[in-house]
Amino acid sequence: MRLILRPPAVGLPLLALLCFALAGLAMPRPALASPPDEPTPIMGLDEVRVGMKGYGLTVFSGTRIEPFPIEVVSVINHSGPQRSIIWIRALDERIEKSGPVQGMSGSPIFLWDDGEEQAPGQGGRLIGAFAFGYSEVKEPLVGVQPIEYMRQTGDRVDRETPSARAAGSTAGLARDAMQMLQRLERIADARNVADIDRMQLTAAKALLEPLLTSQRDGEQARDRLPDLPRDHAGRGDVMPMLLPMAVESPDVASMLRPLLEPMGITTVGGGGMIAGPPPLGMDVEGVKLEPGSVLSVPLVFGDLDLSASGTVTDVLPDGTVLAFGHRMFGEGPINLPMASGFVHFIVPRLSLSFKVSGSLDVAGTLLQDEIAGIAGTPDQQFSVAPLTINVAMPGHGEQTYNYNVVDHPRLTPTLTALATLRSITAAQDLPVEHTIYLDGELRFTGGHVIHLDSMMAGQGAFGALFELLPPLATAMQNPHEALKLESVVVNTRVVPELRMGTIVNARLDQAEVAPGKQIGVTVWVRPYGQSVQQFRTQVRVPPALPEGDYQLIVSGADTYLGQMVATRPHLFMTSSVDDLMEMMQRILSVRRDRIHATLLLPEQGIAVGRHELPQLPSSRRAMIFTPTSTVAMPFMETVEGHVETDMAIQGELAFTVHVRNNGHRPTEE
């Protein structure tokens, strides 16, 4: 049974899910070879000598495991604390052409003892896994992860209490979420994404910032997960052979690389690069996980197959599978699907070559992820969340796409956004001038729901990253309570018009106003490609507002949301997951198609926790707010007026409003 089948339930063990996949189909045979009766013979580090020869096993095309000759170049001892690396030279002409290949991670390497040399693929003892390589090299030098370290990883597999939450409900998750949002911000900078299109990203960062308790926390996060992966091309750096994941577009691949490479996955793209099912004529029957075979990690499956792939290093007598020879996340317990796979072909490049691979049959669950590699078992314990993406594209009607996405607090937000943006352009590219309306809901465990309702003008399908990734990352990586994604429904409607407008002028009916009176505001907006349009709104001055000069700002949604962050910091200080989800929903409720008129008042409000006490008398303020207060803080109150339009509003203008009593008593209106 292939992974393109969509299980209808959520959060169940995959074994149960498969039972529902298609009526009348027999259960699939497990895609795992019978475990050996005895462990594979190994050669310890202290036995490896320069010049020894042997072979490796990997799949170059299809599913057939093939040997390739190798020779030991050196052993670098103490490359890390109690760590060593074996360096070999691959002598196969295919690898000489391609250099080290991403997707060969985990390929088992065997050495012959003196006098034992045989044909490649025969005899020898296992020394470890193909794991590291150099870019821009003239000969294929490969770093081998010693098998001793990998077996230690296998020994730590916890079959009884698998967990995808290595960090648990700690501030570590918030640090990881902040790192992800910082990378997304760097992507926005590189692509010149407008402030209005990144406003939710900016507000989500403000929501997470108070949860990072100290500068030291931030520095620990940078040590643990770098801001951006290194650009290896042309530098000749040694690096782990990341797991390739094929996506159709080079532009999508380059955008996702900074988000996924810190998690051990690199995106590769080009026309038709999505792996999909195996082609006709490829022998895929009875493929098992065994040393040298493809080990695929299905990440999104259904109407789209997104999987990362490496190679099996060893299968232990108890059925534990060892693979990759390097980490994905490197933080211990994980819970991701493990499947057999196939290879379309290898793409040789001047920098780092890669395999274009796909998934075949479910084989179990990856349960341990460490620096030396990953380990999985035949137990099928992982869970998935269903994604339903409805797309209404001009000329195509409405199309529904169904997927399942793996449950992982770091991977799921990016994968969900990727599935959405790929769905939007599945039938055709967007019109040059376009607006995308997006609504739906994100459901999490504990009954938490985030509702979506936004518009993206001229942003392209990539806008899905900036709409979906911030709320998903904030929810799934919050430090208050571990939340899993239960389901996603996203409805998108594409309009072949650029519905965007810029504020070009505004006028107040009067610059001087008495307390309790209304300020009339006229705003002129120039829609894209059209004549200027006029809008009206009003802002009411509080009756008890003291005389003075106040600032009134007329703006679009991005400035308005920025004002909320600046004037009401207490709202962004959450103490529970309920607080956080409530605030995330408030952020998402700020609509781009409104003109906002905001009158900034003196700093006279007091917030106790997140509860606001507005317009207090000075005596009451002095009683509540003291220098030693730990729960009360001042905030800047505002009064607002809003008017809806049919376009995303950009720009801002500022005015000074003179509040004068002029001998009249304040009036209520």
Structural overview:
The chain is α+β, with helices and mostly antiparallel strands and 669 residues long. It has a domain at 500-659. The chain is built from twelve helices and 33 strands. Strand 28 and strand 29 (611-613) form a beta hairpin. The chain is elongated and about 105 Å long.
Question: What does this entry show, briefly?
Answer:
The protein has 669 residues and is an alpha+beta fold. It is 19% helix and 37% strand.
Based on the model shown, name its key terms:
669 residues; alpha+beta; 12 helices
Whole-Å distance between the termini?
70 Å
How would you describe the shape? elongated
Q: Kindly state the number of beta strands.
A: 33
Low-pLDDT runs of 5+ residues are 1-29, 164-169, 214-235
Strand content: 35-45%
**Helix/sheet category:** alpha+beta
**Helix fraction by DSSP (H/I, runs of at least 4):** 10-25%
- Give the radius of gyration: 29 Å
What value does the average pLDDT take?
A: 83
How is the secondary structure organized here?
Layout: H1 14-19, E1 53-59, E2 65-80, E3 83-90, H2 93-98, E4 101-102, E5 108-111, E6 125-134, E7 141-146, H3 147-155, H4 171-190, H5 199-208, H6 215-224, E8 238-240, E9 243-247, H7 250-260, E10 265-269, E11 294-302, E12 306-315, E13 321-323, E14 332-347, E15 353-370, E16 373-377, E17 384-393, E18 397-406, H8 411-424, E19 435-444, E20 449-457, H9 463-476, E21 485-495, E22 500-508, E23 512-513, E24 518-527, E25 533-540, E26 548-555, H10 557-567, H11 577-588, E27 594-600, E28 605-608, E29 611-613, H12 618-624, E30 632-635, E31 638-644, E32 648-650, E33 652-659
Parallel strand pairs: 4-15, 9-10, 17-21, 22-32, 23-33
Antiparallel strand pairs: 1-2, 1-5, 2-3, 3-7, 5-6, 6-7, 6-8, 11-12, 11-14, 11-18, 12-13, 13-16, 14-15, 15-16, 17-18, 19-20, 19-21, 22-24, 24-25, 26-27, 26-33, 27-31, 28-29, 28-30
